[in-house]
Design a protein that fits this description.
This protein has 3 domains: 104 residues, Immunoglobulins (Immunoglobulin-like, Sandwich), CATH 2.60.40.10; 117 residues, Ferric Hydroxamate Uptake Protein, Chain A, domain 1 (Beta Complex); 494 residues, TonB-dependent receptor, beta-barrel domain (Maltoporin, Chain A). Helix content is 6%, strand content 58%. Strand 2 and strand 3 form a beta hairpin. The protein is mainly β.
Length: 735
């Protein structure tokens, strides 16, 4: 890696010196995304007096064209769904002419993503499948938590054990709930081993949610078997000197929420900070949820080349855990307390054609689950089904502790190697530690370190073929050293506002074992230090078509994901009983994803998505061949074969109306209470909302979740909330 970077730097110096000696006119500038971020790897076409040229913006979004014939020229961007602003026409004279440009979104805009390449890039040039929900999408949905937002993404399924704030999982393309890398402002926040509870995550001060489908371990190392989910905190917009906002709403199930924040820019500084308090009783006994959370982002920018940014998120919550209330008496005293913190700092500097980036992050999740009193035994029942024996309440007044920390740091460099090639190289270090176990006994206190180096090459071949090649070498204290590759291509079959883009990608993923799987000392479940990483192989093939001058975008993707060496518990002996963990399971997921986005007018927006999943257990992760849930040939647990959503928003005068219909098909599940239930019924949920501008920055809104009062369970035994109506006021002021 060191030798490679030396060659790159030397060649860059030679090219720069040669360019300085060339006579003639030149045109240069910076191209930025709609939020003002410099945008590298954007294809520009220059036409005019000296003929035509095709070029890529380099690091920091810079472009430079030399040896031009003086005269009139025009620039165009190959980014369907974007237009250049201001007018991209310029008269070039002797010497150098400067023209800075910004991308302005068309009615159905192209998206700029960060997670897919670890740097800004227009999605249609990458060949990977991703969905971006921007601030307008998030605000329009009026969600109570993050979960309803990601459920609208094709290829993503969710399962929540009851109401708001309770345990919730997300499944990307048939992968396990621990198979996606979760980032908060670039900071990895998965628990060691990949687990992440989406239940209490609020959409507080979010500017963007990116969901990248397909293995991404070539960039991120562990956890990214099925994809990456990136949550980005809002920052003050260009020209926003001072912004204030406050809102409050109340409604069904004793729902109450207050939130507020401040943002602004002054000189080289920008800032954004917000906080919220949420409480609800969640309908079921002992399901009350309460959370206080805050998020902030502070940036310092000196010129076009250097900026420093600090982002942080904090949350503290408590929620009752009554168990499977659909099958028997609730546990009226069990509860869980959780504290989350994520802090990230990033330094970005561009100089001499190179872009350098230093990152550091800290994430911690501290959860204590307690059950102070014995609520007595009970016999699970469902309709005419009855468990063969009673279940007992296992009390633990002290609680079970799950306290994990992840300290991360990294360095990345980008260099333009020629007019049509952008190279990215970097190194990451992550140190994981924790304190886990029953607080009445000695705690497990494991530690391990991951070190990874990656290289990525993005090329433009000819005028229409975009190729991305990458790979990573990862050393993990648990499983040693592994290498993972990725390749993607996007071909612009037709350019312009009605562009057609074909894309394909293939990649490999790895995931480290959890702390208990590697280091556990309980004689009933001994850790196995010789575990291999869980692996994935993923492939997809898709097409995107834009029509009616980018007022309609249609996307279709076929994919196949293979998940290998999945870790399972295995019994070692029965007398005495002992068990450990082995790499045993194998599953496969393949299917089709469809997405549609339309903007017939400037005040009407429609979205639709459909996902078909053919998921199957290939090699059972269960030792018991009679186990009906994990038996080979069975569909994957809690991942529906069919899932669809339809959304719309329309405005007239001061009123904006919106609705989202979610349809989830039947799926494999288990009651885990010996009732013999192995399938969960499908459901249809309709959410509706309305906003009315009252003037002077004041807005009233009303939201109805599950408007039709559908009776369903996302997880067997845990009833979902019925119809919930909430209403409130919102104030915004920007100067």
């Amino acid at each position: 890696m060191r030798r490679f970077m030396s060659v790159v730097v030397v060649s860059l110096v030679l090219r720069t010196a040669a360019a300085a000696a060339e006579p003639g006119a030149a045109l240069s500038g910076i191209v930025r995304s709609p939020d003002g971020t410099p945008l590298p790897h954007l294809v520009l076409t220059l036409s005019g007096a000296g003929g035509g040229r095709r070029l890529l913006t380099g690091p920091a979004g810079r472009y430079r064209v030399e040896s031009l014939t003086p005269g009139d020229y025009e620039l165009a961007a190959d980014a369907p769904g974007f237009r250049l602003s201001p007018e991209p026409r310029v008269t070039v004279g002797e010497g150098e002419t400067r023209l800075d440009l910004a991308l302005v979104p068309a009615p159905v805009r192209e998206h700029v993503v960060v997670s897919a390449t670890r740097g800004e890039a227009t999605l249609s040039t990458l060949g990977v499948t991703a969905t971006v929900l921007d601030a307008a999408d998030i605000a329009a949905r009026e969600p109570t938590t993050l979960l309803p937002l990601v459920q609208d993404v094709p290829g993503v399924a969710v399962a929540r054990a009851g109401g708001v704030g309770l345990q919730a999982s997300m499944f990307v393309r048939g992968g396990e709930s621990r198979f996606a890398r979760i980032l908060l402002d670039g900071v990895p926040v998965n628990s060691p081993g990949g687990a992440y509870n989406f239940g209490p995550v609020l959409p507080l001060e979010l500017e963007r949610v990116e969901v990248v489908r397909g293995a991404a371990s070539s960039l991120y190392g562990t956890d990214a078997l099925a994809g990456v989910v990136h949550l980005v905190t809002r920052r003050a917009g260009p020209g926003e000197r001072l912004g204030l906002h406050a809102e409050a709403d109340a409604g069904s199930f004793d729902w109450g929420r207050i939130a507020g924040g401040v943002s602004g820019r002054r000189g080289a500084w920008d800032w954004n900070a917000g906080a919220t308090y949420v409480t609800t009783d969640n309908e079921e006994p002992n399901s009350a949820f309460e959370e206080t959370a805050g998020a902030a982002s502070v940036g310092l920018q000196t010129g076009d080349a250097t900026w420093l940014r600090l982002a942080t998120r904090l949350a503290t919550s408590t929620v009752g855990t009554p168990g499977q209330t659909a099958y028997g008496r609730p546990d009226l005293d069990a509860f869980s307390d959780r504290d989350d913190v994520a802090v990230g700092v990033e330094l970005h500097h561009a100089a001499g054609g190179l872009t350098h980036e230093l990152r550091a992050g800290y994430a911690r999740t501290n959860q204590i689950s307690r059950n102070p009193l014995d609520s007595g035994s009970y016999l699970p029942r469902s309709a005419d089904l009855m468990a063969p024996f009673e279940f007992f309440d296992f009390t633990n007044p002290e609680g079970f502790l799950d306290d994990t920390r992840r300290l991360s740091a990294g360095y990345q460099v980008e260099v333009q190697a020629g007019a049509r090639q952008l190279l990215t190289a970097g190194v990451d270090v992550e140190h994981e530690s924790g304190r886990l176990g029953d607080l009445r006994a000695a705690l497990l206190e494991p530690e391990r370190t991951n070190v990874g180096a990656y290289l990525q090459d993005r090329l433009l071949l000819g005028d229409r073929l975009f190729v991305t090649l990458g790979g990573r070498v990862e050393h993990n204290d648990t499983y040693g050293t592994k290498a993972v590759p990725r390749a993607a291509r996007a071909y612009r079959l037709r350019a312009g506002e009605n562009a057609t883009t074909l894309r394909a990608s293939a990649g490999a993923g790895i995931k480290e074992p959890s702390f208990f799987e590697s280091f556990g000392v309980d004689e009933f479940a001994l850790g196995n230090p010789d575990l291999e990483p869980e692996r994935s192989r993923t492939y997809d093939l898709g097409v995107e078509q834009r029509l009616f001058d980018s007022r309609l975008r249609v996307e279709a993707t076929l994919y196949r994901h293979e998940y290998l060496d999945q870790i399972a518990f295995q019994t070692l002996s029965f007398v005495p009983f002992r068990g450990s963990y082995v790499n045993l399971g194998e599953t496969r997921a393949q299917g089709l994803e469809l997405a549609l986005e339309a903007a017939p007018t400037d005040r009407v927006r429609l979205t639709a998505a459909y996902a078909y999943l053919d998921g199957e257990v290939i090699v059972s992760s269960s030792e018991d061949p009679q186990d009906p849930i994990y038996r080979a040939g069975r569909p994957l647990l809690r991942r529906p074969k069919h899932q669809a959503s339809l959304g719309g928003e329309a405005g007239a005068g001061p009123v904006v109306l919106g609705a989202t219909l979610v349809v989830v098909g039947r799926r494999s599940d288990s009651d885990f209470s010996l009732l013999g239930l192995t399938e969960n019924e499908g459901y249809t949920r309709l959410d509706a909302r309305a906003r009315v501008s009252l003037g002077h920055g004041l807005e009233a809104f009303v939201v109805a979740d599950n408007l039709l009062n559908a009776d369903y369970e996302e997880v067997l035994g845990y009833p979902a909330l019925g119809r919930a109506v909430r209403a409130g006021l919102r104030f915004r002021s920007t100067h």
